[in-house]
Amino acid sequence: MNSRALEFWVGLFVLIGFASLLFLALKVGNLGVGGATTEYTVTALFNNIGGLKVRAPVRSAGVTVGRVTAVDFDTKGYQAKVTLNIDSTYQFPKDTSASILTTGVLGENYVGLEAGGDDAMLVSGDQITITQSAVVLEQVIGRFLYDKAQSPGGK
Amino acid sequence: MAERGSIATVGAFTLGAIRRLGQATLFLGQVLRHSGTSLTRPALTVREIYFAGALSLIIIMVSGLFVGMVLALQGYDTLQTYGSEEKLGVLVALSLVRELGPVVSALLFASRAGSAITAEIGLMKATEQIVAMDMMAVHPVARVVAPRFWGAVLSMPLLAALFSAMGIFGAYIVGVRLLGVDVGAFWAQMQAAVDFEQDILNGVIKSAVFGVGIAAVATFEGFDAPPTAEGVSRATTRTVVHSSLLVLALDLVLTGFMMRMWGE
């Protein structure tokens, strides 16, 4: 085999290899999403975050507008402090409320934002004050059983 | 005294294994020290990339395609019972990119290219080409071993990426085209779940480490083989067995580290 043909096949091999890496990065992975976009950071305090994890999506009306970047425990109020990075193209009023929701019945947790009516917009470093905790299935079942026992027709 | 003898056998075996490990490590150091030639004369390395990498394209592509297809069939069967078929893309992509891509392509690479490297170097030794080079003041490690080592190390990550990409394509064919998973959900859920650094980059790191392991075992076994027909055949078998075991062991260690590093 002459060296020109050999170089051609090696070149083809290297190109195919890098093309598959690029395919994995762009089509399979999430590289490029949020790469060049600017974001602003807000925090929210929750009584209970359920199973919320870092990198969980932040959604409003079902559209992903940002990601959870940190989950900490606030020792002052004994609450969970969730840091949200929101895409700068999406502006929310100051009185926006945040709640922790679940996709499907057993799906992952995400933060849902419900826009308020304030004229001023949230800026980086703000805190969302109106929050609703995650629905913990055990508590719901417990309350249901308790109510059932309390009601006069209950068995 | 029979017990003494059998205990001594165990001891001799252990010492022999440790000695071989030491020799292999020293040999790897020697290969790295004499790698300059493979960089100043890239034609040598390119030739080895052709033999190790380009000629492995077919087996890697076909195996990747089939593994992806089987994963899609099996995954669909299980996911369907929970009504979450649209998660098929996530299942296939994560298993391929994180584990199956690097590991299975490394095992195939060890049998396809690793054995060839060992046999080639071993036969060169048996036909006294290595000695002849030494006589002509050509360093055999720099001229013969290092280009093969680097050819294998550079080919491995590309082959693993290709394996994963073909697997995902196979899963797309079976899942979306044949079984009727929604095409939008297939890709969108996959993109939401697969992280570039955590999953793809770690997969690339894994396959590069596997490449070093396979190349080190293959070149050492070849260079160390007794210069006889039987010696070369045994060395080739040892290359496949040892490098496959090494890949699986390294995978466990690397996965452990990566899970801790990225874990919550």
Strands, helices and their partners?
The complex is a heterodimer of chains A (155) and B (264).
Chain A (H helix, E strand, L loop, with lengths): L2 H26 L10 E8 L10 E4 L2 E12 L4 E9 L9 E6 L6 E6 L12 E2 L1 E3 L4 H14 L5
Parallel strand pairs in A: 1-7, 2-6, 5-8
Antiparallel strand pairs in A: 1-4, 2-3, 3-4, 5-6
Chain B lengths: L1 H32 L2 H5 L1 H11 L4 H25 L6 H39 L2 H7 L4 H39 L4 H11 L2 H29 L4 H34 L2
Number of helices of chain B: 10
What is the general shape of chain A?
elongated
Helix content of chain A: 25-40%
In round numbers, the mean pLDDT of chain A is: 83
Most residues in contact: chain pair: A-B, 28 and 32 residues
| Spatial ordering of strands, largest sheet of chain A | 7-1-4-3-2-6-5-8
From the helix content, strand content and strand pairing of chain B, which structural class follows? Answer: mainly alpha
What is the number of E strands of chain A?
Answer: 8
Overall radius of gyration of chain A: 24 Å
> Helices and strands of chain A: which structural class?
alpha/beta
Q: What is the mean predicted local confidence, pLDDT of chain B?
A: 90
Q: Supply the number of helical segments of chain A.
A: 2
> How far is it from the N-terminal to the C-terminal residue of chain B, by CA?
57 Å
Query: Can you summarize the main beta sheet of chain A?
Result: 8 strands, mixed
Relative helix content of chain B = over 70%
The total strand number of chain B stands at 0
